[in-house]
Design the sequence.
């Protein structure tokens, strides 16, 4: 991602009070991640809004994609024999793309260590100043 990130990330203007059901098109693994992420975003961070649900669904689908590709690679190996010698298994690229999506979408949702350290996501009663300066 290029460009400047905002200095603060404000909670949504209409946070959800109840976790919505996961979209039907998500896999079982992705639905499990949906429940886990909803709990974090609603109970701990209080930042999940209706506008975030498509991003959350994409994040959960990417998590499931990484798991599936990892299982395929564990079963079949990182390479396979092609007509011109060993080749990288296609699941390696799929897993890499999924991990990139998880990192990016997780950051957008506030689920990564870096995004959690942003001052806008810290609670007001946090005794540690986000800037590290005693002003």
Sequence:
């Amino acid at each position: 991602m290029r460009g400047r990130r905002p200095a603060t990330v404000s909670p949504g203007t209409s946070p959800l009070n109840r976790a919505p059901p996961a979209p039907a098109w998500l896999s079982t693994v992705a639905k499990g991640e949906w429940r886990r992420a909803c709990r974090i975003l609603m109970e701990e961070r209080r930042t999940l809004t209706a506008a975030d649900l498509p991003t959350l669904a994409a994040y959960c689908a990417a998590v499931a994609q990484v798991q599936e590709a990892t299982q395929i690679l564990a079963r079949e190996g990182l390479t396979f024999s092609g007509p011109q010698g060993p080749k990288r298994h296609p699941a390696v690229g799929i897993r890499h793309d999924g991990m990139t999506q998880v990192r990016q979408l997780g950051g957008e949702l506030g689920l990564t260590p870096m995004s959690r350290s942003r001052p806008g996501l810290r609670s007001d009663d946090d005794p540690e100043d986000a800037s590290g300066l005693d002003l």
